[in-house]
Amino acid sequence: MQEIWTEKYRPKTLSELVGQKEIIQRLMAIVESGNIPHFLFTGPAGTGKTTSALALARQLFGEDKWRDNFQELNASDERGIQVVRTKIKSFARAAPLGGADFKVIFLDEADSLTADAQAALRRTMERYSNTCRFILSCNYSSRIIPPIQSRCSVMRFAPLKKEDIREYLGRIEKNEGIEITDEGFETLLYISQGDMRKAVNILQVASSFSKTIDPDNLYTSSALARPEIISELITLSLKGMFSEAKEKLEELITLGGLAGEDILSQMHRELFNLPMEDELRVRILDAIGEADFRLVEGADERIQLEALLARIQLLGSSGERLI
């Protein structure tokens, strides 16, 4: 069975990481100084937070011993105060192995911790700072209580740039004997939106269909609609062609297998690529936001999507037009 590429090609050292150059330089300088603080890694998914934590541990303790002094926990699975009082506390209070000065606990998705668990964690971080360092990773730093943020050196990871994703995927392309066309690269960049993990996973799935990676098998692998189809969906509604727009929506749901929230997300992206007056764009954006809220609350997605198309048609017939 083929190994998952996100693990197979995961960088082992900080110098192997792509993107986030300023953060990597800061981390390497901190490792060289030996003065390691607690860290808070925050940013969107797939931007290198977990990989940076693993690479940091490898460089601190060495390839042979890093697993003895490193523990990874996922806070979305174990998010209550009892985990902090038992599993985290017991690891933090134990002496480091192999002559290391301290151990490292990596707490992934720390923004899922309850308020009580974060309050308990704050005290644990303070009490066992001589024997343990904490690396917290989250998508939304606003969900981490201020006392924890003040105890950490905050590293803010940004979505990866196009050239960084191209460089990383180029390594995989060369090693796996596949060919990514220019249009395939652009499609991967569109689909991933700066998320390296998503780009690599979709690339691996697409490579199982063909060794030549083009937009056709990428869109098939990602279960996303082509952007021109979403643009056509909006344009048909604005022009008053509701029946045609409804048929296009039916194809996306039935044949494409797209979920309602995925369609709304793509409509939001493509809305800014269509030439139209700003007032019309704002009103459509407001309608998309309302439909998204209703889906999150559990409303029927087909009814809400068709109602959205109806609202867009009404907006288009009210005098607002495409430019």
Précis, in short:
This protein has 323 residues and is α/β, with parallel strands linked by helices. It has 15 helices and 7 strands.
List keywords for this structure.
Zinc Finger, Delta Prime, domain 3; 323 residues; 15 helices; 3 domains; alpha/beta; Rossmann fold; 7 strands; single chain; globular
What does the model show?
It contains 15 helices and seven strands. The protein has a five-stranded parallel beta sheet. A two-stranded parallel ribbon has the order 6-7. Helix 2 (21-33) packs parallel to helix 3. The protein folds into three domains: 5-156, P-loop containing nucleotide triphosphate hydrolases (Rossmann fold), CATH 3.40.50; 162-222, Helicase, Ruva Protein, domain 3 (Orthogonal Bundle); 227-315, Zinc Finger, Delta Prime, domain 3. With 323 residues, it is an alpha/beta fold.
CATH architecture annotation of the largest domain: 3-Layer(aba) Sandwich
Largest sheet: 5 strands, parallel
* Global structural class: alpha/beta
Q: Globular, elongated, flat, extended or rod-shaped: what is the shape?
A: globular
CATH topology of the largest domain: Rossmann fold
What is the straight-line distance between the termini?
52 Å
